[in-house]
């Protein structure tokens, strides 16, 4: 059974990193975001979010779902 990877924290954006999450535990996670979620993610900028997906790198998440928390 494969369990989803979930990161909770503040959604941020920068020119260097694009969208990322400042996680509650202090880490930062880059988001590999499908184009279908870009508009929704724009609306959630600077909100506390939960991101669900698969971990694809040391600090990167391939996003399946993003929700306000």
TrEMBL record:
It comes from Sphingomonas caseinilyticus. Pfam families: DUF5818. This is DUF5818 domain-containing protein.
